[in-house]
Amino acid sequence: MTTPSTSTPAPTITLTPFGTLPDGRAAQLYTLANTRGAQVSITNYGGIITRVLVPDRLGRLADITTGFDMVEKYTPANPYFGALIGRFANRIAAGKFTLDGKPFRVTPNSASNGHPCSLHGGATGFDKVLWRASPFLSPDGAAAALKLRYLSKDGEEGYPGNLEVAVTYAWNNDNELRIDYHATTDKPTPVNLTNHAYFNLAGEGSPTILDHILTLNASRMTPVDNAVIPTGQITPVAGTPFDFTAPRAIGERINDDDEQLKIAGGYDHNFVLDRPAPGLSKAADIYEPVTGRVLEILTDQPGLQLYTGNFFDGSCVGKSNRPYTRRAAFAFETQHYPDSPNQPNFPNTILRPGEKYQTATIYRFTTRS
């Protein structure tokens, strides 16, 4: 579908088939295009961002996110390329937590250094379901948008409560992708939603992100144990390879002789954001010096997980027919801290009946000389 023509150019939304799931259902692809020619493509399978087409400093458009050109390539295991993540983003130790005195066990679908955990919602998280999709233009006509809805039923992956989830992607003429997350529940339940897009601002399939210059508004982090589960401590980054409070190349210290880097094989850690006030604030600035592309991340969440593709091994071949090799892309997941249901000193992630889960993140794409 496309928007009707008007005297004033408006963003457009195009709907195309995106392949067939193993159970025979069809997936669709929605391409949100602004008046500057930049585009974001999203499929209703897993809410996956499949493409982000933005200009470099000379105005040349290129796709900068990992992904595939048909849904059939997403259904085998992959590192959550571009997907919506839930019911709980990141790790829950051993897949266990206690809520209001009652023990719960959620699917332990991953292991780190031999220790099981529940990762990104379990074996069938929100990244592996078909969402109900409704495309629309914003009331002011300045953004093309897609609203996705899903009912996560009581007991799904072991989580309590029927969770009604709505996620809206909006792509505007300033090359900003805003993601709004909403949820309600009929029983107390942990909720931590995010998106798992991976980027290489030099272009999808480029060999490395180690030369990208990163600035983080985060003076603290949550260190992890050998299972890559937070210890419960919140420690300063000053004097460590995790200090990006001033601009530094991602690869400058990624191979340092540091215990935390060794545990994760690089950066795979939650940073505690320095938030000046409630609401959206800038969390990260990433600059690619050759193309001049810049990604700014704004969020109202307390944490940001940086993952540097430490375990990409070339087995995934993307849209450009180039393999994704180690550290060929980075992900920034705006979030509450990992394992929060088991960490009483971390910000609360329990949603209760009558409450509304509401959070937003903006990916802003610009250029710099």
Structural descriptors:
369 residues; disordered N terminus; Beta-galactosidase, Chain A, domain 5; single chain; mainly beta
Describe the 3D structure:
The protein is mainly β. The chain has one domain (12-367): Beta-galactosidase, Chain A, domain 5 (Distorted Sandwich), CATH 2.70.98.10. The protein contains one helix and 29 strands. It has one helix at residues 259-264; strands at residues 12-20, 26-33, 39-43, 49-55, 61-63, 84-85, 91-93, 96-99, 102-105, 110-112, 115-119, 132-137, 143-152, 163-172, 176-185, 189-190, 194-195, 198-199, 213-216, 220-222, 235-236, 248-249, 268-272, 281-287, 293-299, 303-307, 330-335, 350-351, 357-367. The chain has a nine-stranded antiparallel sheet with strand order 12-13-14-15-29-25-24-19-22, with no helix packed on it. The radius of gyration is 20 Å and the shape is globular.
SSE-based structural type: mainly beta
- How many separate helices? 1
SSE string: EEEEEEEEEEEEEEEEEEEEEEHEEEEEEE
Largest sheet descriptor: 9 strands, antiparallel
Shape from CA axes?
globular
CATH class: Mainly Beta
Helix content: under 10%
Tell me the layout of helices and strands:
Layout: E1 12-20, E2 26-33, E3 39-43, E4 49-55, E5 61-63, E6 84-85, E7 91-93, E8 96-99, E9 102-105, E10 110-112, E11 115-119, E12 132-137, E13 143-152, E14 163-172, E15 176-185, E16 189-190, E17 194-195, E18 198-199, E19 213-216, E20 220-222, E21 235-236, E22 248-249, H1 259-264, E23 268-272, E24 281-287, E25 293-299, E26 303-307, E27 330-335, E28 350-351, E29 357-367
Antiparallel strand pairs: 1-2, 2-3, 3-4, 4-5, 6-17, 7-11, 8-9, 10-11, 12-13, 13-14, 14-15, 15-29, 16-28, 18-27, 19-22, 19-24, 20-21, 20-23, 23-26, 24-25, 25-29, 26-27
